[in-house]
C-alpha cells in the first residue's frame, strides 16, 4: 500500500470525509487524494516521492511559486520574534498600505483570517451601511461558506452537487437572490421590483469557482450602474482575482470601482488570510470606529502579514504580470493545438494567469453552460494528466493557476501531457 493510501485510511477515521476542506477528497473524480509532503517552485511532491507540476497552487495563493526563498525568509524572520501578539504590529500597517496603493477603490482595509471571513464581514457591513437585508449573488460564484452565500454556490458545492446547505435557516437565505452570471437584464429586473431592499450585489468580477468564466462586455459596468442608481453597494469578491488578474485585481483591469472589495489567498502568500476594504465612509462603520462588530484573535497575524508582504514585493517587480500572462497564453494555446490535432472539442476560458478547460462545444458564459460540459471527459483528462506528472484540481469546477515558478520546460511538458492524454482518450 502506498503511503498516501495508508494516510487516507487513517484520515477517514478521524476527519469528516478524510479532509479539512471538501474538494480535497477527490470525490468528483472518484478517487483517493494524494497526501503532499512538500512543494518547491512549480513542483509538488507527494508522500510517496512522486513529483508533479502543480497547477492548483494551493487554490490560488502560490503565485510566486511554492516555498519562494524570500517568502520563507520573511516567515522565518518574523517567527523568530514570536508568532502572535494580539496587538498592533508594523507589518500589518505595511501590508495595508501596499493593498491600498494597489486598489484605488480601497481607502481602508481590515485584515481577517480567510476569504470566508472577508465576504461574511463585507456583507454585514453592506447591510449595516444601507440598512437593508437583501443580497444578490450569481449562480456558480462562491463567496466562502458563510450562511448567506450557500445558495446555488460554486466550488465544492458545485463539485458535490449541493444546491443549498442544510443547517442554514431559510429565514436567512430568503434574503439571498442568486441570478445567472452575465445576465444584466435579469439583475435590472430584480432591481425594478425590489431595488430599495437590496443591500448589495456581491460578484466575482471574473468567476473562478465554476471554472473560469469571464464577465461579458458591459456586465460589470451594468452592475456598477444599477447599484449606484438604487443606493445599493457593489462588492467585488477578489479573493482569487486580487493581485492575480492584475496588480490591482480585476477592478483595475476592467476599470470599475466597487464600494467594497474582498481579498484573500495571494495577500497571505500561503498563510491563512483574508481582508476586506473600501471607501472610508463605509469602513468607518466597523468597530471600534463604528458599531458593526467584527474581530479576530489572529487577525493581522504577523506570519501571514509577512508572507503576504514578501509575495506582493515580488509581484511589484516590472514585467511580472506580463510574464505570467505570456506563460499562461503559451500553455492555453498549446492545449488548444493539442485538442485540434487529436479532435477533442473543448473551450478554454483564460485571463492573466488563471484558466479553465471545459469539455464543451459551446462557449461557457454562466453556470448553466458550465454544467453542460462533459464531466466523464474531465475525469479521464484528470487521471491522464496525473499519470504524466501534472497535478490539477480534482474538480471540473475549479480554476488552474500558473505561477512565476513555472518554466518554459514545465509548460512544454504540460502541453505534451495534454496531447498524449487527449490521444489516449480518443483511441479508447
Ligand atoms: N471567495 C472566493 C472568490 C473564493 O474563491 C474563496 C475560496 N476559494 C472564498 C471566497 C473563500 O475563501 P476561504 O476559503 O479562504 O474561506
From TrEMBL:
- Please name the pathway: Porphyrin-containing compound metabolism; protoporphyrin-IX biosynthesis; 5-aminolevulinate from L-glutamyl-tRNA(Glu): step 2/2
Q: Where in the cell is it found?
A: Cytoplasm
Q: Which GO terms describe its biological process?
A: protoporphyrinogen IX biosynthetic process
Q: Which organism is it from?
A: Desulfofervidus auxilii
Q: Which PROSITE patterns match?
A: AA_TRANSFER_CLASS_3 (PS00600)
Q: GO cellular-component terms in the record?
A: cytoplasm
Give residues where N6-(pyridoxal phosphate)lysine occurs: 265
Q: What SUPFAM superfamilies does this protein map onto?
A: PLP-dependent transferases (SSF53383)
Asked if Ribonucleoprotein is a keyword of the record, the answer is: no
Under PANTHER family, the record lists: GLUTAMATE-1-SEMIALDEHYDE 2,1-AMINOMUTASE, GLUTAMATE-1-SEMIALDEHYDE 2,1-AMINOMUTASE 1, CHLOROPLASTIC-RELATED
State the protein's name.
Answer: Glutamate-1-semialdehyde 2,1-aminomutase
**Reaction catalysed?**
(S)-4-amino-5-oxopentanoate = 5-aminolevulinate
Family, similarity comment: Belongs to the class-III pyridoxal-phosphate-dependent aminotransferase family. HemL subfamily.
What lineage, starting at the top, does this entry show? Bacteria, Pseudomonadati, Thermodesulfobacteriota, Candidatus Desulfofervidia, Candidatus Desulfofervidales
UniProt cross-references to Pfam families, sorted A to Z: Aminotran_3
State how it assembles.
Homodimer.
Sorted keywords for this record are: Aminotransferase, Cytoplasm, Isomerase, Porphyrin biosynthesis, Pyridoxal phosphate, Transferase
Query: Which cofactors are named for this entry?
Result: pyridoxal 5'-phosphate
- Record-listed E.C. numbers: 5.4.3.8
Tell me a Gene Ontology molecular-function term this record carries: transaminase activity
Q: Which Gene3D superfamilies match?
A: Aspartate Aminotransferase, domain 1, Type I PLP-dependent aspartate aminotransferase-like (Major domain)
Amino acid at each position: 500500500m502506498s503511503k498516501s493510501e495508508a494516510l487516507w485510511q487513517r484520515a477517514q477515521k478521524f476527519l469528516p470525509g478524510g479532509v479539512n476542506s471538501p474538494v480535497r477528497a477527490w470525490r468528483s473524480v472518484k478517487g483517493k487524494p494524494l497526501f503532499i509532503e512538500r512543494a518547491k517552485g512549480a513542483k509538488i511532491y507527494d508522500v510517496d516521492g512522486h513529483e508533479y507540476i502543480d497547477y492548483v497552487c494551493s487554490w490560488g495563493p502560490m503565485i510566486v511559486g511554492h516555498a519562494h526563498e524570500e517568502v520563507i525568509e520573511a516567515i522565518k524572520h518574523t517567527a523568530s520574534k514570536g508568532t502572535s501578539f494580539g496587538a498592533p504590529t508594523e507589518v500589518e500597517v505595511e501590508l495595508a498600505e501596499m493593498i491600498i496603493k494597489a486598489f484605488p477603490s480601497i481607502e481602508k482595509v481590515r485584515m481577517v483570517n480567510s476569504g470566508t471571513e472577508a465576504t461574511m464581514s463585507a456583507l454585514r457591513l453592506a447591510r449595516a451601511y444601507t440598512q437593508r437585508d437583501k443580497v444578490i449573488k450569481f449562480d456558480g460564484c462562491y463567496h466562502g461558506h458563510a450562511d448567506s452565500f450557500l445558495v446555488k454556490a460554486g466550488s465544492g458545492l458545485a463539485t458535490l452537487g449541493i444546491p443549498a446547505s442544510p443547517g442554514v435557516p431559510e429565514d436567512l437565505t430568503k434574503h439571498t437572490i442568486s441570478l445567472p452570471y452575465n445576465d444584466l437584464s435579469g439583475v435590472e429586473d430584480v432591481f425594478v421590483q425590489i431595488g430599495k431592499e437590496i443591500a448589495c450585489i456581491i460578484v466575482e468580477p471574473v468567476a473562478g469557482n465554476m471554472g473560469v468564466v469571464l464577465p461579458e462586455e458591459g456586465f460589470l459596468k451594468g452592475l456598477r450602474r444599477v447599484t449606484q442608481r438604487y443606493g445599493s453597494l457593489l462588492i467585488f469578491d477578489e479573493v482569487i482575482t486580487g493581485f492575480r488578474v492584475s496588480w490591482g485585481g480585476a477592478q483595475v483591469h476592467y476599470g470599475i470601482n466597487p464600494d467594497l472589495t474582498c481579498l484573500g489567498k495571494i495577500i497571505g502568500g500561503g498563510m491563512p488570510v483574508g481582508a476586506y476594504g473600501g471607501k472610508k465612509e463605509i469602513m468607518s462603520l466597523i468597530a471600534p470606529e463604528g458599531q458593526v462588530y467584527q474581530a479576530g484573535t489572529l487577525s493581522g497575524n504577523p506570519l501571514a502579514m509577512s508572507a503576504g508582504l514578501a509575495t506582493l514585493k515580488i509581484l511589484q517587480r516590472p514585467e511580472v504580470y506580463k510574464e505570467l500572462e505570456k506563460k499562461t497564453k503559451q500553455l492555453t494555446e498549446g492545449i488548444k493545438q493539442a485538442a485540434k490535432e487529436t479532435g477533442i472539442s473543448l473551450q478554454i476560458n483564460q485571463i492573466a494567469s488563471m484558466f479553465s478547460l471545459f469539455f464543451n462545444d459551446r462557449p461557457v458564459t454562466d453556470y448553466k453552460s458550465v454544467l453542460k460540459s462533459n464531466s466523464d471527459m474531465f475525469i479521464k483528462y484528470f487521471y491522464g494528466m496525473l499519470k504524466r506528472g501534472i497535478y490539477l484540481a480534482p474538480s471540473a469546477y475549479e480554476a488552474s493557476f500558473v505561477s512565476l515558478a513555472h518554466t518554459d520546460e514545465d509548460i512544454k511538458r504540460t502541453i505534451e501531457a495534454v496531447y498524449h492524454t487527449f490521444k489516449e482518450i480518443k483511441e479508447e
